[in-house]
Design a protein that fits this description.
about 0% strand, mainly alpha
């Protein structure tokens, strides 16, 4: 638990935050559940479980992006720090675009049919 606060305060190495928390952690927390969602839904897992997991995902992704930003320059070559911060900015831009862009297939229509 202390390591979570350490990275959030910007005291962790960039390599660890990027490779372990950002790449491996975020991939496991987003890709694996996405692949398992339909089979779990077909087995009758209640909707509140999916909502709870979505809240956990958003919390983790927010934490990992803040940690990546704050630990960006804890590396020998400062270029990697700038690239890490660019990555965070691109992620924010992608979320903003997808939040305001009209969806091609609304999620509620898929659930209701």
């Amino acid at each position: 638990m202390l390591r979570l606060w350490s990275s959030l305060r910007g005291r962790e190495r960039l390599t660890k935050v990027f490779w372990v928390y950002y790449l491996a952690g975020a991939t496991l927390l987003t890709v694996v559940p996405h692949l398992a969602a339909e089979p779990l839904y077909d087995r009758g897992v209640p909707l509140w479980c999916f909502i709870l997991f979505a809240v956990i995902q958003v919390s983790y992704l927010l934490w990992v992006h803040v940690s990546l930003w704050r630990c960006a320059f804890n590396v020998a070559n400062r270029v990697w720090g700038y690239l890490a911060r660019v990555l965070v900015c691109v992620a924010i831009l992608v979320v903003a675009v997808y939040s305001f862009a009209p969806p091609s297939q609304p999620a509620l229509e898929v659930l209701l049919h």
